[in-house]
Design a protein that fits this description.
The protein is mainly alpha-helical. It has 3 helices and no strands. It has one domain (23-90). The chain is 76% helix and 0% strand.
């Protein structure tokens, strides 16, 4: 009887550990979200550097580049699949 209880306990623990996403999968999912944000940081910094009012043409060009990159980032973020039945990661 004791062996049976031990065997069932081990089986139950194996089933619980096999369910759900792993830590590495969660990290990879979070990294994919952060990667989208990080790719936009360069253009955002360039835009902020141009807001001095001295060169309007440069500001317009930088704004256009930032706007296009932001649209691309938005499209990439909309393609992210849910993780463990959720779209956000805490």
């Amino acid at each position: 009887m004791k062996r049976l209880i031990n065997f069932l306990s081990v089986c139950f623990l194996l089933i619980l550990s096999a369910c759900g996403p792993t830590y590495n999968e969660a990290v990879a999912y979070n990294d994919s979200i952060i990667n989208i944000i990080d790719n936009l940081n360069i253009e955002h910094a360039m835009l902020l550097d141009q807001i001095d009012g001295h060169n309007i043409d440069s500001l317009k060009i930088t704004k256009k580049i930032f706007s296009e990159k932001a649209k691309t980032s938005l499209q990439r973020s909309e393609k992210i699949m849910p993780f463990a039945e959720k779209k956000e990661f805490c």
